[in-house]
C-alpha cells in the first residue's frame, strides 16, 4: 500500500474523530440547553400555580369582606336588619341590594330595618339607593323602616331636599323594631 493512502486514511480518521467530538459537544450543549429550558418551564408552571392559588385566596377574602361589609341579621321572627356602617359606594350599594333581596326572598321576610347608626355622612346617591332598596323590598312584599339617623345626617338630607319616598323612619333600632312588630300585628 502506498504511504500516501495511509496518510489520507489517518487524516480522514482524525477529521472524522474531530467532527464526532464537535457533534458530541453540540449534542451535549443541546441536551443541557433543553434541560435548562425544561427546568425553567417547570419553575414557570410552579409560579403560575402559586399565582392561581393566591388569586383564589384573594377572591375568597374579597367575598368574605363583602359578606362582612353587608351583614344581614334576623332581629326577630320575620324582621331582618341591615346595619349600615361607613361609606356606601356603588359596588357596596349593589351588594347590599342583592344580599338583602336574596335574604328577603329566602326567608319571606316582611319587615326590614335599615339601621344607619354607623353612618356619619349621607349624600344624594346614598339616599337614592336607600329609597330604591326600600322600593325593591316592597315589590317582594316587605316594608322598610329607616333607623339611626343622626343629627348631621338629618340636617344633610334636609338641606339637600332629599325625598325619602315615604320611607318610614325611627329614632333607634328599638323604635324601628317596635314599628315592625306593630305592622306585623305582634306588638
TrEMBL record:
<feature type="coiled-coil region">
    <location>
        <begin position="34"/>
        <end position="68"/>
    </location>
</feature>
<protein>
    <submittedName>
        <fullName>STAS domain-containing protein</fullName>
    </submittedName>
</protein>
<feature type="domain" description="STAS">
    <location>
        <begin position="69"/>
        <end position="180"/>
    </location>
</feature>
<keyword id="KW-0175">Coiled coil</keyword>
<dbReference type="InterPro" id="IPR002645">
    <property type="entry name" value="STAS_dom"/>
</dbReference>
<dbReference type="InterPro" id="IPR051932">
    <property type="entry name" value="Bact_StressResp_Reg"/>
</dbReference>
<dbReference type="Pfam" id="PF01740">
    <property type="entry name" value="STAS"/>
</dbReference>
<dbReference type="InterPro" id="IPR036513">
    <property type="entry name" value="STAS_dom_sf"/>
</dbReference>
